[in-house]
Design goal:
Order of helices and strands: HHEHEEHEHEEHE
Largest sheet: 4 strands, antiparallel
Strand content: 15-25%
Number of helices: 6
CATH class of one domain: Alpha Beta
Structural class: alpha+beta
Length: 219
Amino acid sequence: MLRLLVLVLLLSNGLFFVWSQGLLQAYGWAPAPQTEPQRLHQQVRPETLRLLSAEDLRRQEAQAAAPPPRPPECLQAGLFNEAQATLLRTALATFPVDSWTMESGLESARWIVYMGRYVDAEAMNKKRGELRSLNIRFEPLVNPALEPGLSLGSYPTEAAARDALAQLANRGVRTARVLQERAEARGQWLKFPQADEPLKQRLGDIKTALVGRPLRTCR
């Protein structure tokens, strides 16, 4: 009985060895394949894979964490007379030709309710405090010849400015008056239709040619 058991075990081990080696595959007896060579044919451009060093990984993480660049915006300055526009064109000679334009424009007259001129900055700051206590808004002046002073509002006509002055008088304003801050003018607008960050970094090169006119978001 013991010999028979040993013989059965030997035959079983032999059959398992033959089966595990795939020698009975032709008869439909074989273990499931443990490799998947077909996946090698499904790879997409495996030659582009590369191992990253710790420094490469830190650099990519820093780039991912950086805020996205701001989109380009339209900037303009003006108006410039013909002589000023000629100087601007010369200063812009090194800029890409499609990055800027000069366009004819009209700047309408501007009337303001004005307070000033004050003897010094201290007197003007004192007046600002009084206006805040009355909850009255004021804004910077466009015409530097009226500094130091305050504008309590700007209007397209003298009549509109006088109406505003009457309303302010009812609120306690006593020393304001109506002035024409800017006369109607024709000239050239400088525009940068798509000012991105690299272009903005170069705008300091034309600061002198802008003759004090700031670049603002296009209207």
